[in-house]
Design goal:
Layout: E1 11-15, H1 19-22, E2 33-37, E3 52-56, H2 60-63, E4 71-75, E5 83-86, E6 92-103, E7 108-109, H3 116-124, H4 126-131, E8 136-143, E9 155-160, E10 165-171, E11 179-183, H5 189-203, H6 223-267, H7 270-273, H8 276-289, E12 293-296, H9 297-300, E13 310-316, E14 319-329, H10 337-352, E15 360-366, H11 384-394, E16 396-400, H12 401-413, H13 418-426, E17 430-431
Parallel strand pairs: 1-2, 1-3, 3-4, 4-11, 14-15, 15-16, 16-17
Antiparallel strand pairs: 5-6, 6-8, 7-9, 9-10, 10-11, 12-13, 13-14
């Protein structure tokens, strides 16, 4: 089954590698995934999420925590993990590998049975280290708790003249081929890791993907594989071209959206964000888009004669229908006194039109500007009595710009035609609702 969040293999866990030790590493991408920790933090990682452990200066406490299922390279340590054995009689025993003594020998040997590449690496690194020391650690094996020495467990790669093991490796148990290697110093550490990783890849190639890289070379592939590779490359090229084309389209659309967003801010959303002349101009544009004949109040009345902001008209059942509109914007709540101002405008209109009143009077308010329009209360909701009187006296209608905006956008999008939009407004008094949720009397 698939493993999720698995990091690229092979993965290496380095223990006790400080800045100085890390500076000696030159891995050239050998491990796509690397983690450095101190030995006291070993309990914070799951060791089997790594293919290789590289430990510097191991002590007994850390050694006892190492997972025997992970290949390990230890450098300059004083304690190594035990090996588990099972005899043909199914008897189990534990073999301890430990530092036994120190050798003062000045002559050393490299076993002949090692392959030439390994011999060369030992000769150029570990041998140079032990030659330079006045004495070197000797490692031996014994049955756990008995002190009886067991041979043929340690595989030496470097010995002193008496055959004592100074560097080598061993299998951690009989059931797997997981190895534990130990070296006297960090000399040539990157070369050692390269050699060991390629060695371990032979046994577990899935843990070291590069081991199978040759199988992807064209000269070692079957014809059907080559054909499918060609097909895959063709599809990838086509996909890349489509991706570029779609990215260009997305970029173009995003640019247009940015332009239109700025335009909407300057044209449509002004009735939700602004005050004063800007708000009045935006309301005039909205009413004009709804099909009303719109007249700016300043063009009707003499200069300095401040009356209604806007007059609108339309034809209803063959008759001309006229309305006076006051437009106000407030940072905070709408003001009930604005309804009194409108009553004065209606009186003046009657005076100027032979006692004939307008068919309706509207109060359009944009308020609570700092609040998200979707979270605002409708204008004058706390003054329902006064609004009711305004409706009865003047066919008055209080229009919150948040509701007017929705009606306006539905007309622009084609969801509602202009005649339906005008009737929706003209047929209502009191508080404007859209879409209407109550029968109008």
């Amino acid at each position: 089954m698939p493993r999720y969040n698995q990091q690229p293999k092979p993965r290496a866990l380095f223990i006790n590698f400080g800045e100085e030790e890390q500076a000696m590493l030159n891995l050239n991408g050998l491990f796509p995934t690397i983690k450095f920790i101190e030995d006291y933090a070993l309990h914070t990682v799951h060791q089997r999420e790594f293919e290789v452990i590289v430990a510097y200066d191991l002590d007994i406490n850390t050694t006892n925590q190492l997972d025997p299922a992970v290949h390990t390279l230890a450098i300059a340590g004083s304690a190594f993990p035990s090996r588990k054995e099972q005899s043909q009689q199914h008897l189990r025993r534990t073999i301890d590998i430990s530092k036994w003594n120190r050798s003062v020998a000045t002559e050393f040997t490299i076993p002949d049975q090692l392959d030439s590449k390994l011999q060369d690496l030992v000769r150029e690194t570990a041998l140079q280290d032990v030659i330079g020391n006045s004495s070197n650690d000797i490692f031996t094996t014994s049955i756990h708790g008995s002190g009886i020495v067991v041979n043929n467990v340690l595989q030496p790669i470097l010995q002193d003249g008496d055959g004592n093991v100074l560097a080598g490796y061993y299998l951690l148990n009989d059931e797997t081929n997981v190895e534990f290697w130990f070296l006297p110093s960090l000399n040539g550490i990157s070369r050692w890791l390269d050699l060991l990783v390629h060695r371990w890849a032979v046994e577990t190639p899935n843990d070291f993907p590069f081991a199978n890289a040759w199988k992807g070379a064209a000269e070692w592939q079957a014809p059907v594989e080559l054909a499918l590779h060609d097909q895959l490359n063709t599809e990838r090229t086509s996909f890349a071209a489509l991706t570029i084309a779609h990215e260009q389209k997305i970029s173009h659309i995003a640019t247009q959206l940015e332009i239109e967003t700025e335009a909407a801010n300057d044209n449509y959303r002004v009735i939700l964000t602004d005050q004063g002349e800007n708000l009045k101009d935006a309301v005039e544009k909205a009413l004009n888009d709804l099909g009303f004949t719109v007249t700016d109040g300043d063009s009707v009345h003499p200069a300095g004669d401040r009356l209604e902001d806007i007059q609108i008209s339309t034809t209803i059942d063959g008759n001309v229908w006229r309305c006076l509109i006051e437009v106000r914007g407030y940072k905070h709540g709408a003001q009930m006194n604005d309804l009194l101002r409108i009553s004065r405008f209606v009186s003046r209109y009657q005076q100027d039109n032979a006692g004939i009143p307008p068919n309706a009077a509207w109060y359009i308010a944009n308020h609570d500007l700092a609040t998200d329009p979707g979270q605002r209360q409708l204008a004058l909701t706390s003054n329902s009595t006064e609004v009711g009187t305004f409706a009865e006296t003047f066919n008055g209608l209080v229009i919150d710009t948040t509701v007017l905006f929705k009606l306006w956008m539905d007309v622009l999008s084609g969801k509602l035609n202009t005649e339906e939009a005008r009737r929706t407004l003209v047929d209502q008094t009191n508080y404007f609702e859209y879409p209407p949720t109550r029968a109008e009397v």
